[in-house]
Amino acid sequence: MLGKNKNGNSFMSMSRAGVGIAIVFAVQSFAEPVVLKGAMLAPLLGKPISAVRFFGTSGAPVPFQIDEVDSSGDYVCPSGKEPNGARIGGLLDTNDEITFLWEDLDAQSAQTVQSLGLPIRVNRGSQSRLLWCSADSTLPLSPTVYIHYDPQQEKVITPYYYAVFGHDRFHFVRAGCMDFANNRYIDMTGELRIRLTLRALWGILPITYTENNLVCLVKRYKAGPIRLIRRGDFHLNLGLWIKGSSAAVNQICYPQMTGVPVIAHLPIRLKFLFKEAYLEMTPVLTRQAQAFSYQIPSVRADFSFEPSTPLDTFIRVNPDHSLMFCVNRSSGYGWLLQTSMPSGLMGESGYVFKRCGADSSIGYCGFKISLNDLPAGKYLINNWVFFGRNPSQLF
C-alpha cells in the first residue's frame, strides 16, 4: 500500500467499520487494488482459504486473490527454484492478504440487497462500493484472470501493460503499455537504465555501477488472477567476484501497476567512504514513444522528444514522494518514488531528461537521488509504476 506522502496526503488508508458494516476500507489511489489483511476478516479466520468467496451486491462473484504470509512477513510462493509452499497451512490467518479491484465492485447500496455473508464497504472519494464474503465452498468463483506470467520468458502481461524482466534481474529489459485507442501494446521502453555513481579518494576516483551490476536471483514466485509476487535475493556485484550487502526483496505486479520495495542496509555513514554518491533510474524510451511527453507536475514541466527540445535537462527538485509521467493522449505510465531517506540530505537530487537519437532509442528520462551524507541504517527505496488511459489522473 502506498501510505502517506511527506506532505501528509493519504494515498490509501483503512479503518474498522461502524454500525452495520463489518469493514470500511478507503481507497484514494485509482491504480492500486484493495488489499485487506486476514485480521480484518475475523469471522473467517481459521476457515479454509479454498472455501473463501467474494460477491458483489448483484450476487455475481468478484475476482480476488488470497496470498498467505508467514509469521516472518514472507509471502508463501509455491513455484520456482526454492518454493516455500511447505509452509502453507491452508487456513486463513491474520497475516494473510486478500486482494481485489475497485473496478470489479458494484455501485449498488447495501440497503437494496440481501446479505450474502460478511459485508465490506470500500470508499474512494465520494464513491462507495459494497461486497460480501463468505466461506461457503459450494458458491462459484469468478473465472476472470488479469495476470498472465510466463516464467520461462520471465514475462508478465496484463490488460494495461507487459514487461519482460532480465534474467536474474528485477528490472525490465523491455516493456510496453496498452494503446487503448487501437487496442494494442506500444513497445515504448527498452531496458531500465540504472547508474550508481560513487566518488572515492576525496572525489578524485569515480566508480560507476550499472543495471548489469544489480543482481537479483529470483528464488520463487506466485502468479494469481490479481497479482504476481516474485521473491528474490538482491545484491550489488562489485566486481572481482565480490558481493555488496544483500537483501530479500519482493516484486509485486498488479493489473495496473507494479512495485519493488527494497530495504537497503548501509553499515556506516556514506561520506566516510565517498565524497559523492548518486543513484539514477531512467527508463530508455524507444522510437515508438516519439509522441509521448515527459511530465513533472510538481514543477509544471512538460518535455517532448521533438528536435526543438533541449538535449539534456536536470531539474533540481527532490523527486521523493513525487510523481512523474510519460504519456500521450490515450495511454502511458506514471512513476512514484518512495524512500525513507531524510529529505534534508537529498538537496542535490532531481529529475533527468535526455533526448538522443542513437540506435533504436529516442532518449531516457527519470530521476536522480543524492546519497552523499546518508547515515548508517536501513532505508526503504520503493518504486511504483502505474498504467492507464490517463495515468496523470490516477492519483
**What form results from the Cα inertia axes?**
globular
Give the structural class: mainly beta
Order of helices and strands: EEEEEEEEEEEEEEEEEEEEEEEEEEEE
Number-wise, the strands total 28
pLDDT below 50 for ≥5 consecutive residues: which ranges?
A: 1-20
Number of helices: 0
Average predicted confidence as pLDDT? 82
First-last Cα distance:
13 Å
Q: What percentage of the residues does DSSP assign to strands (E)?
A: over 45%
Q: Specify Rg, calculated over alpha carbons.
A: 22 Å
Amount of helix: under 10%
Main beta-sheet annotation: 10 strands, antiparallel
Give the topology, please.
Blueprint: E1 12-16, E2 23-27, E3 34-37, E4 53-56, E5 65-67, E6 97-100, E7 118-124, E8 127-134, E9 148-150, E10 155-157, E11 161-165, E12 172-179, E13 184-200, E14 205-210, E15 214-223, E16 228-239, E17 242-243, E18 247-253, E19 257-266, E20 276-286, E21 293-296, E22 301-304, E23 312-315, E24 323-327, E25 332-339, E26 350-355, E27 361-370, E28 377-387
Parallel strand pairs: 2-7
Antiparallel strand pairs: 1-2, 3-6, 4-8, 5-6, 7-8, 9-10, 10-11, 11-12, 12-13, 13-14, 13-20, 15-16, 16-17, 16-18, 18-19, 19-28, 20-27, 21-22, 21-24, 23-26, 24-25, 25-28, 26-27
